[in-house]
Amino acid sequence: VLIFASLFAMTVSAADLITVGYAQIGAESDWRTANTESFKSTFTEENGFKLIFDDAQQKQENQIKAIRNFIQQEVDYIVLAPIVETGWETVLGEAKEAGIPVILSDRQIKVTDDSLYVAWVGGNFLQEGYNAVEWLDGYLKENGRENEDINIVLLQGTIGSSAQVGRTEGVEKLLADRPKYHLLAKQTGEFTQAKGQEVMESFLKSYDDIDVVIAENDDMGYGAMEAIKAAGKVPGKDIIMISYDSGRRAFEKVIAGELNVTVECNPLHGPRVAEIIKKLEAGETVDKIQYVDEGVFDIKNAAEILPTRTY
Ligand code: GZL
Predict the structure, then answer these.
(1) Which of 8, 65, 185, 278 yields a CA-CA distance of 20 to 30 A from 143?
(2) Which positions fall inside the Periplasmic binding protein domain (predicted)?
(3) Is residue 94 within 8 Å of 78, Cβ to Cβ?
(4) How many Å lie between the centroid of ligand 1 and the Cα of residue 16?
(5) How far apart are CA 62 and CA 80, in angstroms?
(6) CB of 89 closer than 8 Å to CB of 128
(7) How many angstroms separate the Cα of 147 from the Cα of each of 139, 143, 229?
(8) In 3D, which of 309, 250, 293 has the Cα closest to residue 131?
(9) Beta partners for 19?
(10) Complex ipTM, two decimals?
(11) 149 alpha carbon to ligand 1 midpoint, in Å?
């Protein structure tokens, strides 16, 4: 009787689990690793979920294949971190046809029919762009350099990703109002440390008067630091370093003085998406657009805040 009862309980509980297919972009950065961990530690069986995880190796076609797989497996929900903003209508139309709700995490998509997804959770990329330039204004003023001509290079993320689109737009919009700031060059480093180093090496060969690097994630910033040191300059001193994400390593670089500021983009979307699913399961409505809270961390607050960080 005991064996039957426990088998029955397992069968019932397996049937009760909410199955979630998660089409993740890849493992290109510390941020992505923390984002994945946030989902894997939230979507557990004890929390009532069965998570089917797919790593697309930074390729949109792999994400599309994963979504088709999830549809075949008749998952209850699909979560997508869309690598770029376009190219999703067809496959999300297939999910809609199959009656599977789609929740977007992290980056956004451009679609004419926004019923193709139920909700989006992520960072305010445009505001993050503004945050970087507004921090630079304050830093230069504090250092008596507000009247200097300032030469800037921009290491962009994956072109066409909403993180890149928003951050670049925010930076360029404010630079346009600041005649003293000169954007010498911008180029994608694909959000990776290796590519960031490579692009910074080429920038340093082209320009010997770079004052500021804005890297659209910390990992490309770390690569740029290596290139700057190899060129005999001191990152954080000879060249002001600004980057995005605010992972633990970035805090350590700020405290060491190699990174002047990290603009936060919170990766902990797991609990937020789980909350959305639980609400949908209960027949409740959910907000379509849900921004996560984000800060700006520099030498003034990094040491005090680092102990409170979870990623
Ligand atoms: C931002 C996210 C970006 C991070 C990068 O929400 O999409 O992708 O800034 C990551 O580190 O690769």
Answers:
(1) 185
(2) 26-263
(3) no
(4) 33
(5) 12
(6) no
(7) 12, 11, 27
(8) 293
(9) 50
(10) 0.97
(11) 30
